[in-house]
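User: Let's play a game. I give you a shape written as tokens, and you guess the letters that built it. Ready? Here's round one.
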């Protein structure tokens, strides 16, 4: 039996925090009496203790982390981007090695769980899924990974993809993906009927990429909200990106936000550098669950990223004009509690009897950690100091 007494640090609000770690669990949080007999003392003075970071949207199969530098190649269309990506990924280091390298890099920053979108289509079949699953198995002691079957090339417009999605669900994938039902697939009703039908039959969650612009994108969000309510899938559906919500007047975005809130549809944003994105604070205040992820990291889509979710929270706040502590707390929520709730992460947080899984950062409290992105961190998973 191992026993440690962790003290000296503060919680995300700056309040003193101490507890024992016994056999990988948190015990006696802020209890009187100090260290138990025989406990090893761990002094975290100067550190804020945060629940483990949760990446709500990442693409492990695409990244070139763990491989040589791949210069970015400009393209003229989405279909051209997909072709460039297929060729580059095929010529890169083995996917298992690249995915594992990125998982371990994210872990070092304090990420303990992630939702990973994996390309599935009629030509690649389940190859990417098998590779990412192997990498996930290698890292199971440090990272919980939820897999999404992501039809990057379309569902209706890419022959064979619908059947491969079924195969992925039969193979145990926990989340079904989708993408731009109108502008990419050309048939919104057919794609959404296919996806929601599969989600109901297989009892899985949905997470749909939506890059469609303006009113086209808003119409899609309303369709998704209506189908979510009709299927009884409240709290189990997310839309990633939803750029349209940032391309229209705020009042119009909030009209759609009300429908999303009623349906329990969550919105993911990574605050992309070259594109409008949803008004996160306004949507949150309207009752929409907003969460975040790194999305693409050093791949064919863009050369940026290192996997640090605190840096991502800072970028969300920076681009959203978040200045108050309350706003910075929302950015932190998006990479911790909100993301954990969206992916349905069990046994999460800093609480009595929960797994001792957290990240300690050199900061005064949570808002300071988001604003400053401190380098000095200590990561603990199930009571193990990594």
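Assistant: Ready! My guess for every position:
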């Amino acid at each position: 039996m191992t026993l440690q007494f962790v003290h000296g640090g503060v919680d995300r609000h700056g309040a003193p925090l101490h507890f024992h770690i016994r056999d990988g669990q948190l015990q006696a949080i802020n209890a009187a009496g100090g260290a138990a007999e025989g406990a090893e003392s761990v002094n975290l003075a100067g550190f804020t203790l945060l629940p483990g970071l949760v990446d709500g949207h990442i693409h492990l199969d695409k990244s070139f982390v763990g491989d040589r530098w791949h210069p970015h190649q400009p393209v003229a269309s989405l279909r051209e981007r997909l072709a460039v990506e297929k060729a580059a990924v095929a010529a890169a280091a083995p996917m298992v090695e690249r995915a594992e390298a990125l998982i371990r890099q994210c872990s070092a920053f304090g990420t303990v769980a992630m939702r990973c979108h994996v390309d599935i289509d009629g030509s690649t079949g389940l190859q990417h899924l098998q590779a990412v699953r192997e990498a996930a198995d290698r890292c199971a002691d440090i990272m919980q990974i939820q897999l999404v079957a992501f039809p990057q090339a379309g569902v209706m417009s890419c022959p064979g993809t619908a059947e491969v999605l079924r195969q992925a669900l039969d193979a145990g994938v926990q989340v079904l993906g989708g993408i731009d039902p109108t502008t990419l697939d050309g048939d919104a009703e057919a794609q959404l009927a296919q996806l929601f039908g599969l989600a109901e039959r297989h009892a899985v969650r949905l997470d749909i990429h939506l890059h469609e612009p303006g009113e086209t994108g808003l119409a899609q969000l309303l369709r998704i909200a209506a189908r979510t309510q009709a299927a009884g899938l409240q709290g189990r559906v997310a839309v990633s990106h939803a750029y349209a919500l940032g391309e229209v007047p705020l009042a119009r975005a909030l009209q759609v936000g009300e429908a999303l809130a009623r349906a329990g549809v969550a919105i993911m944003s990574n605050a992309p550098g070259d594109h409008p994105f949803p008004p996160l604070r306004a949507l949150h205040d309207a009752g929409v669950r907003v969460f975040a992820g790194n999305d693409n990291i050093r791949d064919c889509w863009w050369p940026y990223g290192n996997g640090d979710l605190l840096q991502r929270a800072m970028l969300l706040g920076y681009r959203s004009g978040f200045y108050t502590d309350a706003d910075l707390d929302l950015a932190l929520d998006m990479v911790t509690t909100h993301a954990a709730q969206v992916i349905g992460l069990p046994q999460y947080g800093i609480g009595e009897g929960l797994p001792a899984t957290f990240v300690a950062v050199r900061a005064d409290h949570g808002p300071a950690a988001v604003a400053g992105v401190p380098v000095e961190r200590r990561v603990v998973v199930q009571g193990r100091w990594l």
